[in-house]
Amino acid sequence: MSDLTDFSKLCVHTITTKPWSVEEAMDHYAAAGIGGITVWRQWLEGRDIEKTGQQSRERNLEIVSLCRGGFFPASDQFGLDAAIEDNRLAIREAAALGAPMIVLVCGAVPGQPLEESRKQIADGIAAVLPLAEEHGIKLAIEPLHPMYADDRSAINTMDSANAVCDLLDHPLVGIAADVYHIWWDPDLEAQIRLTGEKNRLFAFHLCDWMTPTTDLLNDRGLMGEGCIDLKGIRAMVEATGFDGFNEVEVFSERWWARDQNEFLDEIKRAYLEHC
Ligand code: ZN
Fold first, then answer.
1. Which residues have C-beta under 5 Å from ligand 1, the single-atom ion?
2. Ligand 1 centroid to 144 CA: how many Å?
């Protein structure tokens, strides 16, 4: 198979094709020759998770990660404890599914100092690390664009994510680099290089930034629709030796309203042309 038609390192997140169940997503991704799937936890509700993992493997579809854990910060002890329990559950789900990694959207509490939230994030990850070790599950901190610093994540740059990794200093703790969140960072190239040098570049997520962005959450672009230098960032990532999946993670009301088979064709085309 030539490089031009090789989708073996392409992964699609189930949320990208939100109208599809996990079974439909697995069937369509596999039929399209796509190599990987990242499963969002909502897609596992009511499922026998081990069986879902088996179904994916039967289709030669590699489970890249489980999305998502995190949301560690809280304003009281009850909330902090509940978050740790939920992350432990996510680790057990990942183990049942056969997912080697969990993506962490780390969380934040509006009005709480970001420094406090960052401390709670590091403490929360430390608290769940023994269970992650037991199951061999990697935890990938995903820095989120600063527009989400109020309530979704107090970790907003690669530098900030690397600081948490340095603090915890554990081979199972690394970073998920999502172009949507980090494309604007003047230190991006140096930070990606450093992350690679420390063997903690765990995942690479693709989409695009729309101008104007009409919804802070659900108006991501398909690759090529926006202004992100996708080829440039991919080159930085691959220069570190990263040979993992290129994961397409598009939350878009526009695309969800379309025929999802046509969308999947568009994803493959955009991946070849723009990434
Ligand atoms: Zn992402």
1. 178, 205, 249
2. 8
- Please report the domains of the chain, with CATH numbers, ordered by start residue: 10-274 (3.20.20.150)
Q: State the helix-helix crossing angle for 22-31 and 49-58, rounded to 10 degrees.
A: 10
Task: Report yes or no: 7 and 25 within 8 Å, Cβ to Cβ.
Answer: no
- The per-residue pLDDT for range 66-98, each reduced to its tens digit, is 999 999 999 999 999 999 999 999 999 999 999
For the chain, what is the mean pLDDT? 97
For residue range 102-120, what is the model confidence (pLDDT) as tens digits? 999 999 999 999 999 999 9
CA of 85 to the centre of ligand 1 (A): 23
Tell me which residue of 166, 152, 126 sits closest to 217, measured CA to CA: 152
What's the CA-to-centroid distance between 139 and ligand 1, angstroms?
13
**The pLDDT of residue 79:** 98
Measured in Å, residue 182 CA sits from the centre of ligand 1 at: 10
* Predicted local confidence at residue 23, as pLDDT: 98
Q: Cα separations (Å) of 212 from 3, 94, 115, 215?
A: 34, 36, 31, 9
